[in-house]
Amino acid sequence: MSAESTTPRTVHVALNERSYDIIIQPNIIAEAGRVLAATVHSRRCLVVTDRNVGPKYGPRLAKSLQMAGFDGSLAELPPGEAAKSLKVAEILYDRCLGAGLDRGSCLIALGGGVIGDLTGFVAATYYRGIVFVQVPTTLLAMVDAAIGGKTGVDLPTAKNAVGAFHQPRAVLIDPLTLATLPDRELKAGLAEVIKYGVLDDAELFAFIEQHSQQLLAKDTAALAHVIERCAAIKARIVSQDEREQGGGPRALLNLGHTFGHAIEAATGYQGYSHGEAVAIGMCMAVALSVELQWLAPADRDRVVALIAHVGLPTKLKPTDPDTNTLYAASLKDKKVAAGSLRFVVAEGIGKTKVVTDVPEAVVKKVWDSGRE
Ligand code: NAD
Ligand code: GLY
Q1: How far away, in angstroms, is 364 Cα from ligand 1 center?
Q2: Which residues contact 353 (CB under 8 A, 6 or more apart)?
Q3: Are residues 193 and 309 in the same domain?
Q4: What is the CATH number of the domain that holds 303?
Q5: How many CB atoms lie within 10 A of CB 118?
Q6: I need a surface site. Which of 26, 131, 185, 336 has the fewest CB within 10 A?
Q7: Which structural domain range is residue 207 located in?
């Protein structure tokens, strides 16, 4: 590992009294106790993780918390989206009570976006809100889910339907944890990384084009670089528009998601992971941008080529739900404003905006053309 790749990098999320730091540092899990002792007042905490992540990183985190004087216990949940439920939240409330957590205590989420969203939701609601810390271990959670305070659980028929805005006290990112992340999950995270390049940062996009092999090989320096760039973009946008109000800047983070969420919902959350659906959704978003004459076809081709190059899908399969089903699924999304679909379109690599009132025929044409 080069000296540069071990240097801590800090990104600040400026939100007045809810401000916090995102620290990106290899092996920070072993120092988490020392770092958190300076930001978290109570020494009583509960670490929430899942059965894939807990055995790998739980003992190191527990040791570091213990050495810093924390009195902590560990709750290990089954992995997977099914844990993001009210039922599992209730189990966690019981664990909080059992661990003697009071209003000053702290929850620590060690895992991917599922653990982060669930733990954040429990922290937002237990005793009307306690402190929580994010220690994300998937690339997707490091660049997106752990930052910005969107927490929540799914209902049986509606993803992320119950939730709260509750900002973490700190986000500690250890890129070395990605060494054990399955390749499919790494690629899902890369879809979100590419999203940041398209929506805000042409230099980041070019970096991913030039370093895709290092990123896929989990080179720590390349990963730390893109994590920092994405975290900085998200921190800036969240600082400007914490609650995603009225199509404000936070809505830009939904690039590819109007199509992507419809793909996930219409395939029963079985066919594609979130990152894969967003990858196809981004290809459709740039196709729509060309269709509406905001984007040059050459830029669309660059985006689609990069998504394909990192091994993500760019088109729906012939067996996937038909256009009418997908269009109907998109109308049920949370992002529908006053009955009108909201899309993020690109005007170039690194420049995006929100549009509404796109004619149904144009949207359906894009769905039709986005199939193998
Ligand atoms: P995930 O949390 O399900 O993790 C994916 C898999 O990787 C799991 O099986 C997990 O056990 C495993 N894993 C995690 N870290 C590992 C590691 N270092 N080594 C080995 N295995 C590891 O999935 P995700 O993609 O991280 O998160 C998806 C969730 O995030 C969804 O529920 C989505 O709605 C949510 N999300 C939230 C936001 C937000 O702003 N709050 C943003 C994007 C996504
Ligand atoms: N993942 C989109 C957001 O946090 O707003």
Answers
A1: 31
A2: 252, 294, 344, 345, 347
A3: yes
A4: 1.20.1090.10
A5: 26
A6: 336
A7: 183-217+244-369
Q: Does the annotation count 225 as an active-site position?
A: no
Q: Which of 144-153, 277-286, 294-303, 333-342 has the lowest mean pLDDT?
A: 333-342
From the list 111, 131, 120, the residue with the least C-alpha distance to 153 is: 120
Q: Is the CB of 150 under 6 A from ligand 2?
A: yes
Higher-pLDDT residue of 121 and 7 is 121
**C-alpha dihedral, 14 to 20 to 24 to 25, nearest 10°:** 140
Look-up of token digits 């739900």: 321
254-298 confidence digits (pLDDT tens)? 999 999 999 999 998 888 999 999 999 999 999 999 999 999 999
Chain centroid offset of residue 303 CA: 20
> Is the confidence at residue 4, as pLDDT, over 70?
no
Would you state the pLDDT for residue 156? 85
First to last CA, the chain: 41
Give yes or no: residues 189 and 138 share one domain: no
Q: Which residues line ligand 1 (CB under 6 A)?
A: 50, 52-53, 56, 79-81, 84, 111-115, 117, 137-138, 140-141, 144-145, 148, 150, 160, 177, 180-181, 185, 188, 274
- Which residues, at least 6 apart from 60, have a Cβ–Cβ distance to it below 8 Å? 29, 30
